[in-house]
Amino acid sequence: MGMILDDVRIPIVLSPMAGGPSTPELAVAVSDAGGLGFLAAGYLDAAEMSRRVARVRAATAAPFGVNLFVPGTPTPPEQYAGYLDRLGREFPLGEARFETDDWAAKLDALVAEPVPVASFAFGSPSAAEIGRLHAAGTEVWVTVTAVGEARLAIEAGADVLVAQGAEAGGHRAGFTDDPAADDRDPLSTLALLQLLTAAVDRPVVAAGGIATGAGIAAVLAAGAAAAQLGTAFLRCPEAGTVPAHREALVRDIPTMLTRAFTGRRARGLRNDFIVGHPSAPSAYPEIHYATGPLRQSARAAGDAGNINMWSGQTHTLITDAPAGELVARLARETKDALEAALSRRFQSC
């Protein structure tokens, strides 16, 4: 089975952004422009995932991917009950519950109706699960945040690694969410990319803080097979980003890592909710489901202070151009940046 990236004209991968921004239209636009579009299946049941996959298939013959969340294990209620009790005095909350995100049914659906690429966050599928996808003709990508995770993914049979650096917006996609490790600085995209390319023999897609052609050129020069961009597409008209989030992205607001909204570390634009709840426990997806009503209410009211506005560190560089135009512009910028870097280097020799 050949690498799907060999058939992708432009080395730009759309980050699968679950929870709203990811749409079939956005995935189609990126793939049609020569990149690799992705559809986020996190928080969808298998039937809805299949409906969205069908919409992508009907709109393009270009390759695309689907992203799933690997389920974890339940968190003991005593670890998050106090936090939710405090939140419940201020906000409407839902049921704190553990779910597998319809994992088994979604895997079955992808085996029955294969897609070119299936990618995974929050862990690696088992060797048996990857074997089923391979048998169906699907390439498997696993998102990692450390060399140890990469080795586990390769042992299970992963074809490609997505290196998620600290600059990336949204949830940290590592295999665990250990508060004991919070005092360790997460690896930057460039640092992680260099460590992975030195340690493993799989193609690596770099993700995190990449918003320009120069950024893409930098990771390609450092050995990445492609660059994965998410925040860069959040203001595209095809994205499902809510208006309050779109508007906030253009302002010079710092990003922060937080567990306040979901119980799992994620990078988002700093707002009242994140600042007001700095000590949220690690309890995903239980806290995610509990805070669902408060986030929904805030989105409906346009209340940016209580919305999880996931964003990478370079959000002030993004535009509202259509996704296809953005891919084309980034491709030109990348080519120019690589040529300029080579020209400067050889002129100095």
From TrEMBL:
Lineage start: Bacteria, Bacillati, Actinomycetota, Actinomycetes, Mycobacteriales
Organism field: Nocardia aurantia
Entry keywords, A to Z: Detoxification, Flavoprotein, FMN, Monooxygenase, Oxidoreductase
SUPFAM superfamilies the record matches: Inosine monophosphate dehydrogenase (IMPDH)
An annotated Gene Ontology molecular function: nitronate monooxygenase activity
Protein name according to UniProt: Propionate 3-nitronate monooxygenase
Reaction catalysis annotation: 3 propionate 3-nitronate + 3 O2 + H2O = 3 3-oxopropanoate + 2 nitrate + nitrite + H2O2 + 3 H(+)
Homology family: Belongs to the nitronate monooxygenase family. NMO class I subfamily.
Cofactor(s) the record lists: FMN
PANTHER family reported for this sequence: NITRONATE MONOOXYGENASE-RELATED
Transmembrane segments annotated in the record for this chain: none
Any one GO biological process: response to toxic substance
Pfam families per record: NMO
Domain of life: Bacteria
